[in-house]
Specification:
Rossmann fold; 11 helices
């Protein structure tokens, strides 16, 4: 039976965008040690950086790559969640929070390439710089970062030892993303001109404070055009093009052990996305768990902090079990 964490209550989103909610959930705690920052590649006229948390030494240690969310349109590496902080501060992990270039200025293939290059950098330079053990590597992320985490399960070489997807998704062509979304249609209409002005024309990986890129995400969800804007292809007429970019279509018996965490009241990424990923993993006998959180919204909003902490603790235990 799939584990379930029960709760009572209701979701209050107060009209906030999903990217805002996820960013709020993943802000680093005050007083946390400052990370060491490295450049892992240059692309699009700028530098892509990685923040490394954990013991400041080169002793050999397990490593977690954390991938931020934001619909592939906004967000940054700056904030990491309690789950990742605990691995760095109490479990001796090197936790690496990475940049990647953002859509729509950068399209999906190049975004995936950035994440792959970050993994290659961790494996090649991590041992020397911060003691990373490439043989004990985990990947985790939330929302769009959860999607990129699931992509890592078949795009990273060598494959990670374990994956943790917080409210992520495995199919980017399904109606929830490729049709106007009922929840976002209830919010004030975003004019096309405002949406495109919010993202500009320059490639970015770390938007400045106060940027309005979330307005473009909201516009895409209201219009049902997220796959077209992010990938540059139409899922209706070119569905096969998306095969290499849908994790649920690429699960194999060699896929890493995976933990899926999702709230049933998620109005941004449907709970069914994690459920369907779990079904596919089960079909191929891949070790996995699905933590179903009844009534929780996107970013695990709407539940008591003690419940979020309990979920994080289970995620920590899952990672430590599988990295060895």
């Amino acid at each position: 039976m799939l584990p379930t964490i029960a709760r009572r209550g209701f979701l209050k989103q107060l009209g906030a965008t999903a990217a805002t909610l996820v960013a709020a959930r993943h802000v680093a705690a005050q007083g946390a040690p400052a990370p060491r920052t490295y450049t892992y590649k240059s692309a699009g006229g700028g530098e892509l950086k990685a923040d490394v948390y954990g013991p400041d030494d080169t002793a050999k240690k397990p490593v977690l790559i954390w991938i931020h969310g934001g619909g592939l349109i906004s967000g940054s590496r700056a904030g990491i969640p309690r789950f990742a902080r605990e691995l760095a501060q109490r479990s001796g992990f090197a936790v690496v929070s990475i940049d990647y270039r953002l859509a729509p200025n950068t399209k999906l293939p190049a975004i995936i390439e950035d994440v792959q290059d970050a993994h290659r950098w961790v494996c090649a330079r991590g041992p020397e710089l911060f003691g990373a053990d490439p043989g004990r590597l985990a990947v985790a992320g939330g929302s769009a970062g959860g999607y990129l985490t699931l992509m890592a399960g078949f795009r990273f070489d060598p494959r990670p030892r374990v994956l943790v997807s917080y409210y992520g998704y495995g199919d980017i062509t399904a109606p929830w993303y490729s049709r106007p979304d009922p929840f976002y249609l209830k919010q004030p209409h975003i004019p096309k001109e405002e949406a495109y002005a919010a993202v500009g024309e320059t490639e970015v990986s770390s938007p400045p404070a106060g940027n309005k890129r979330g307005r473009f995400y909201l516009y895409c969800r209201q219009q049902g055009i997220w796959p077209r804007e992010v990938a540059g292809h139409d899922p209706d007429s070119e569905n096969g093009w998306f095969d290499p970019y849908c994790p649920v279509r690429n699960v194999s018996k060699d896929y890493p052990p995976t933990l899926l965490i999702h709230g049933t009241a998620d109005t941004d990424v449907p709970y069914e996305q994690s459920k369907e990923m779990g079904i596919k993993l089960a079909e191929l006998s891949v070790k996995h768990e699905l933590i179903t959180v009844p009534g929780a919204g996107h970013g695990l909003t709407g539940i008591p902090p003690v419940m979020v902490q309990a979920i994080d603790d289970r995620a920590i235990a899952f990672v430590k079990t599988h990295v060895g």
